[in-house]
Every structure is written in structure tokens, then in C-alpha cells.
Design brief:
The complex is a heterodimer of chains A (115) and B (115). Chain A is mostly beta strands and 115 residues long. Chain A contains no helices and 12 strands. In chain A, strands 2, 5, 6, 10, 11 and 12 form a 6-stranded mixed beta sheet that branches. In chain B, strand 4 and strand 5 form a beta hairpin. Classes of the chains: A mainly beta (115), B mainly beta (115).
């Protein structure tokens, strides 16, 4: 069965530190890849997505992610985090063969940024 | 409203009771998804509607769970004979259509607690 693994459940950083959150998926076919973010008290919202083309994708608020097909990975990065990046981050995958986005989510990573 | 809305925001019920959870998608969105998020986990796919029909209900855990979308807009998730293990946040998402490149917009969720 398809699954998504997020390596870190909790990450604590100081402001201006660099961030990298790991995400690996298990599916051999073509996939779409997503990162969602949930700020405290808010809805899940899309941070960035990869469908095809350039494997380095840029999202909102300075986030980017790189798709490495050979490693089945889609890690999220930000060069310098801010206190306002404190949130829970979810990696998600959908299979393109279905024709619609049946999202399979990882367990999430809670990021706390200290001033 | 501009976003996906879900009612109630919280529901507390007793084991064995019947509950209904409602989702109002963004106007004009033909695709609607239900997910369930248990404590410490990412959202888990339950069912996908394209218009009025359930195109994929493979995520429903068992026959106690049922969802409808009779007019292709509002959807209701129904849970019969609730069990303590059904306690979770139930999320609804909608998109313009089921196609792969359409973003899913999530609602705030209904937190269900079964005592």
C-alpha cells in the first residue's frame, strides 16, 4: 500500500536557522507531491506542489521543495525560518493514475520556532 | 462564505449513537473529499465525490460510515453506532473538479468525541 513517511515529528529551531523537513513515499508509479501547512488554529492550506517539470518547486512564504525520484523523496526547505513559521507541516502524495487527488498524508512534523 | 465550512465544529456523543457531520464546499466546486485525522496522525482519505456520486469510497472504514451529496453541493457524513475509536477530526475539502492540477481547499474540521 502507498505510504508517506515524515522523519521528524517535532523540530525546534531558532529564528534565522535553516529548515529541512524530510518526506519519503512508497509508490513506484507516477505521483503528484504536496506540502500542506496548518498554522495554530487555522485550516490546512497548500504550501507547494509538484506535478511535473522542474523538480525544484517554490511555494509561498519562501518555502521550496525538491523532488528526487531516485530517492522517492520530496524534502521541504527554507533557508531562514521566522517565528511565524511555527506550524504543523504535512507531506502528501497522490497517484496520477486515479485522475483525481486522493491524498495520502504523512503523520506531520510540528515545527516550533523560537525568537 | 468564501471557504469550506463544516458543522458542527465539535460533537460529543455517546457510544452507540448516530451522528451526522455536514460540509458546505466552496461554491462551484464539483469535487468534494472527506478525510479523518486521528490524534498524532495525518489526514486519512475516506471518500471522494464528483458531483452527486461517490466516485471513490475505498477509505470508509466499515459499513457504519456512509456519506451523501444529493444535490452536488452540501455533503453529509453519517456514522451509525459510533465507537470510541471513531473519535477524530473529520475534514472536508473541495476543489473545482477532480482533476489532478486542482488544489483542494480544506475546511476547519469537525472534532468528534465518542464517550
Amino acid at each position: 500500500a502507498q505510504s508517506v513517511s515524515q522523519h521528524n515529528h517535532h523540530v525546534i529551531l531558532s529564528e534565522a536557522a535553516s529548515l529541512e523537513l524530510g518526506c519519503n513515499y512508497s509508490y513506484g508509479g507516477t505521483v503528484n507531491l504536496f506540502w500542506y501547512v496548518q498554522y495554530p488554529g487555522q485550516h490546512l492550506q497548500l504550501l507547494l506542489k509538484y506535478f511535473s517539470g522542474d523538480p525544484l518547486v517554490k511555494g509561498i512564504k519562501g518555502f521550496e521543495a525538491e523532488f528526487i525520484k531516485s530517492k522517492f523523496s520530496f524534502n521541504l526547505r527554507k533557508p531562514s525560518v521566522q517565528w511565524s513559521d511555527t506550524a504543523e507541516y504535512f507531506c502528501a502524495v497522490s497517484r496520477t493514475s486515479g485522475g483525481y487527488n486522493k491524498l495520502i498524508f504523512g503523520a506531520g512534523t510540528r515545527l516550533a520556532v523560537h525568537p | 462564505g468564501a471557504g469550506v465550512s463544516q458543522t458542527p465544529s465539535n460533537k460529543v456523543t455517546e457510544k452507540g449513537k448516530y451522528v451526522e457531520l455536514r460540509c458546505d464546499p466552496i461554491s462551484g466546486h464539483t469535487a468534494l473529499y472527506w478525510y479523518r485525522q486521528s490524534l498524532g496522525q495525518g489526514p486519512e482519505f475516506l471518500i471522494y465525490f464528483q458531483g452527486t456520486g461517490a466516485a471513490d469510497d475505498s477509505g470508509l472504514p466499515n459499513d457504519r460510515f456512509f456519506a451523501v451529496r444529493p444535490e452536488g453541493s452540501v455533503s453529509t457524513l453519517k456514522i451509525q453506532r459510533t465507537e470510541r475509536g471513531d473519535s477524530a477530526v473529520y475534514l472536508c475539502a473541495s476543489s473545482l473538479a477532480g482533476q489532478l492540477n486542482n488544489e483542494q481547499f480544506f475546511g476547519p474540521g469537525t472534532r468528534l468525541t465518542v464517550l
